[in-house]
Each structure stands twice: as C-alpha cells, then as structure tokens.
Design brief:
By secondary structure, the chain is α+β, with helices and mostly antiparallel strands. It contains 22 helices and 36 strands. One of its GO terms (molecular function) is hydrolase activity.
Amino acid sequence: MPGTTHDPLRTGRRTRRTGRMLGAYLTAILLTVLPGASGAVADAGQSTGTPRATLRYTESGVPHILARNFTDLGYGYGYAVAKDNICVLADNFLSVGAERSRYFGPDGAANTTLTSASDNLTSDLHFQRINDSGAVERLGGRPAPQGPRQEMRDIVTGYAQGYNRYLARTGRDGITDPACHGAAWVRPITGTDVYRLFYALMNWTGQGALADGIVGAEPAPGAAPVPADARTADRIEAGLDRTLRADGKGSNGIAVGADGAAGSHSVLLGNPHFPWRGAGRFWQVQLTVPGKLDVSGAGLLGTPFVQKGFNDQIAWTHTLATPRTFGLYEVHLVPGDPTSYLVDGVKEKMTPRTVRVQAKAPDGSLTEVRRTLYETRYGPMINRAVGVGLPWNAATGYALRDANDTNLRGLNTWFGFATARSTADIERSLSATQGAPWINTMATDRAGHAFYGDIQVVPHVTDAQAESCGTPLGKELFPKTGLPVLDGSKSSCAWGSDPDSVEPGLFSPKRLPSLTRQDYVLNSNDSPWLANPHAPLTGYPRIVGDVGTPRSVRTRESLATVEETLQGKGFTKKSMQRMLFTDRSRTAVLAAADTATMCAAFPDGKAPSGNGPVDIDRACRALADWDHTYSLTSRGSLLFERFVLKLATVPGGLWNVPFDPADPVGTPNSLKTTNPEVRRAFGDAAAELHAAGIPLDAALGDHQYVVRGTDRIPMHGAPEALGVLDLITPVWDPGRGNVDVRTGSSYLQVVSFTDDPCPDVSTLVTTSQSADPGSPYYADQTKLYSSGEWLPSRFCEKDILASPDLEVTELS
C-alpha cells in the first residue's frame, strides 16, 4: 500500500496514506516548489516549513528526489544512496582517503574498482600521494569549466550532508549490512571526499591503472633497459587489454534515429558492463529541481549525479573508448645523479615527495609507512606499466603523464547532458567541458537524431609527433596500441595544444570523431571506425583508435543484429529489449557448426585432451541442435564457452578465412578444426565439465548462477570471447561451474521517444539497488534480470503517482 514516511529524526513516526489523501498530500508538496505555483521558493538555508528533499520511492526502491534547490537535491541523493549502500560507499571513501592499511592491514586486497593496486598499502600510498598534492582541492576551487559549476558544487555539498545525516540517524551499530555493522572505518564525509572519489574514477585509466608502477618507482642503477622490440610492445599491448578491460569491462550503446525506429522518433539502448561490486555498481535515481533540472538514470556508487540517463527530450549512454588517456616519457638521467634529468641539455631536479600512511600490524598496533616518490615536469616516475617492467636505471627512466589528472570537469559534462534538449546540446556539452574521461557517448532525441561522439580527454600527440619524438620502444608501441612513449630530453616533445581546447595538452573537440545520423550509430568498445558502417569514420589521430582492423566479436554481433532488424520493420522499445536478451553468440554463429562437425568426427566418441582421450557423448548432438544463444535453457552452450575461452591460448590464427576490411562483420571466419591445438582445447573443455560433474549437454542456467542470501539465481549471458551483447564475466569454480559474476550487464536502459510527452522507458539494475542483504532491494532486480524482465521507468508525475509501491519520505 502506498505510504508516506516522515524522517524519524524529524517526527519519530511513520504514517500511511492511501489514494486521494496521498494525491492531495503530494500535490501540496509540488505546489510549494513548481514554477508559477503559489508561494515563493526559498533560497538555500531558509526555512519555509517544507522538506529539504522529498524522496518518492517506486518499484524496486527507485527514488525520485524532489527538492527546491541543488544543495537540497544533493542532500536527498546522499541520504538515499547511503540508506541503500552505506558499506560500499564507506569502503570507497576509505580507499580514496588512503586508510585501507590502517583498518584492513597493508597486505589486504585493494578496492580494485578504483585502482589496479596490488594490495592495500600500494593503494594507500597511491591515493595519499594525490591527497598530499592538493590536486583535488585546487581543481574543486577553480571556476568552471576547469572546476565544477555552481550547481554541482551545491549538489556535492548537499550530498555529503545527506550521507552524514543517514549515518547520524543509524550510527555505526545501527547499520544492518554485516559488511560494516559497527565498523570503526565508517565515518562522516566531506565534499572533498566526494570530489576525491569522482577524481579517482576520472583517472582510473591512467594513474589508477598504473598505481603499482608509481608507488614502486625507485632508482635501480644496475637494471638493464627494457628491450625496445616487438615482443615488449606485444606484452604491453596485452597488459593494456588485461588492465583496462579487466574481466570484460566495457559496454554496448546503440542509438537508433527516426529512419530506423518503428512507431517512434528514436530508440536508445544503454548496456554498460561494469563490476558487480564496489565503485563499479550503479544506483538508479530521478533528480528534480522544478524548472531547473529533471533527469533520471543511474550513477556509479559514490558519484553525486546521473551518468547514464534521460530526460523528456534526450537519452544518452556511454561505452569505454579506445583513446589512450596517458602517455610515457623516457627521461635521460644525469650521470651519477639518478634523481636529476636533462631537458634540452639543462639539468632539472626531480621533486621528492615523502608519502606517509598508517598500517595495522599483526598485533593490532599502528605503524607509519613512509615512501619517497619522485615527480618530473611530466608527472610521477614509474617503473612498471600494465605488468611490464620499465627500469629506472643509471641512464634512463620513465615518467607518466595522465591527461585526466586535472579532470573534475566531468561533473559539468554530465550536468550538461541532464539539462540538454537535443543531441546537439549533448555534443556542445562534450565540447565545452571536455570532461568525458575515457568514454564514447551515444544519444538520441525527440527530433529523431542519433549521435555518436568520441569527444573525450585525449592527449595531444599527433602521428607525426609520435614518429619524430617517439623512442625506439614508442615506435614499436604506438602503431599497435596508440600509447605514446616520447623523448623527455627535448622540450619540443611536450604534448601539443589546440587554441580551442579547454586546457593545454588536449586535442580540440573538433579534431575528434563524431557522427549524427537518422538511422543509427553504435559502439561496443572498438574504435570509432564503424560507428555506422555506411559512413565510416576515418582521419582521426592514431592515439584515438585504429581504422580498417578486425572488430571484436561483440561489435560484429552489434552490427549484424542492428542491420538485420533494420531490414525488417525497424526498432521499437520492445524489440530492442528482446534483441539484448536473445543472448545470441556471434562466436557461435561463426564456429558452432564447425565445432559440432569436428566433434562428430572424433573416433570412438572421444576427443584428445592434455590428459588423454575424453568421452564426448551427447556433446556433438547438443552443439548441432544448439540455437547459438546463451539463454538459461540452452544446451551445449557452457561446453562451447569453456572451449572458446581455451582457444585464447592457442598459438597462431584460429580462422581459415582472414579478416577482410570490406567485410568486417563476416570476417574472419571458418574455425581451423584441423589444428591439433584446437582439437585438444575442445577435449580439455569437455574434461573440465566432467571434473565438475556437469553434463556436456546441461542447461546453462543449471550451472551458471549467482547466490543472493539463500537464493540461487540462474544467469543468462556469456563472456566477452563469445560475442554476446548481454555480456557477463562469470566466476568459474572447477567443482561447480560458473558460481558468480565479476563483471557484466549492469544498468540497462531502453528509451523511446514517441508523440507522448513522457519518454517510454524500461530499465534494470542487474545488481539491484542495495548491497545490504537485509534490504528488500538486495536481489529483486537481479531476479528480474534472470527471468528476462524489465522495470518500467516512471518519469512523469502521473506515472510516479500511479506506482502501486509509492512511498514517500520527507527529509527536513
């Protein structure tokens, strides 16, 4: 039954209101804040007797936050998100506060959704270095666009107040989530903490990804130089993929314009694949300051705003992009002085910074750990990048420059999205703020436009500069990966600038790829080249991405399924939803029939494996009959998944037909089933399932699942290598199968604009709104996801008031 909750700190009571009473009550609230309503809207800090924020909860605990001003809006946001996820948030704030070692010990696991640091001590030293520098505080104090616009400053201030209000209400001992019940590390926060967390997410692909190399950097005069050869470049390329696309992290975005939409003006799919834990979790909300802001969508936990969402005129989403957001400089050291280097023949002294953190000893006492780190004009010294050593020896060393190290501008970017009225406004926000950190943007609007833009933070390193200033390692690495390694001994090798960039060192938005169409644009984490294959994007700098190269199997599936749909009647909201949850595997389309034929040809029904012949009874028929999807009932799909994952280690090419740029969706194809390594991989996969007690033709949902409380929830979808749009990266247990999900489809939205003034939207937070096992919203949307269902989004007032689960909380 609908109800209204007055915050206990205000009245200490809870009342239920039904039907007409509730409608009249909400109307009274709205009359105090809507433009043109009777009564003045109070400025921040004044009291009119109305709530600071009103939280209207609809199905699955989604809050619609209504406030008179932006500070109060942030207040409602901070309170509501803390109510659902206090332990995850507290852990995130503890991490950027550099206090994990103090509470969890130096050797414990770091929060890897914020940094790739190998342990707590490395994480703390990394974040303490940033905190000591005062970078976040300086950026927070700068005027827009370099610093936050006033509305975002107000929201951040309110967010910290709301978070603290919830914590004051419950106290540590009143927290119901066992992950942090009574924990001393749960503490009040400030606006600086909120900025620090946002900043960490902005430079996650630069400093955050290279934390081990920064913290571990120290002179090693006798170390041999890194080989400047193709093998080293290949290792760094693999390390970049492993680190920045960890566990299948990525996204799909499809924006369909008027020419591709059936019965509507446009349709947008947002399908990010993010970690199902920590700062990677999404939380859904609607934010409303009448007359100034009305936006719905989801943000990463700890960020104070919507990052993927929609309003009544536009919808947008993001995918991880290919531009390298950092670069390396090889510095030439002064003989006998490894902390000094030469620029244009002139000696420059590195700046030492002694970083101190507290670490808990085994006996519970605290000890201070000190580490002296060194910085150059380019940035910090580094001795390792994505798993590859970069020695700081007597002659040379390496420094990191991160293009996002001045980026709090993303707050302004997303505020611009939230208030946009067209895809042209989306492009203007991207260009004016240059705050998109490592993401592509896709958007649609009521006018039927479909927009793609890779307008983000990109280091200003031209192809010509990478050639003229590139070191021997850089000349091997840049063509393959777009990662520049430049000669730090020449001032002429500094990153360039364009006059219309927001700040020096970045490419102008005008030099970055974008495309507006009436049919469609899409991206599945490949370069911009085939955002629409009928209008390929080319001519952008190599650091942005490649052109004319093989696309991932997921990109190929995106292009194939969109083109197939457009050959029919075009997209509706429902057909877009069905397309995603069909769970078709492009890898299976390309190779399952070949695999079934190979299986049937094995003598005596046994396949070779690393441990001898393996029984494959029933596997061949299952593969031959398989519909190539990763639905809960599909049979043979789990065996094929384990087989394909093993193919990643098979040396040489896997396909008989090579890649053809003229047919990027269809090629490469035809699996090399005569290759002994391919045949052995199949047998090893079958042996793996036998060892786990899983029939080779088992239904996927019986052995791919997550556990929430006492519920075992089957999961559809598949890992990156299978080319399924609905990507999940499961956790394989050799004795039980896929028993959890590390990364995968997270906040899903399908938005359609029709003649109705209200957008037609369905959403889903696959991890559910709350990480607290005691919450009713801990697993409810996870179960919806399992069954292929969606949540209706309630954006307009009439839809919010019509929710059968409507419940209202006033925050005074």
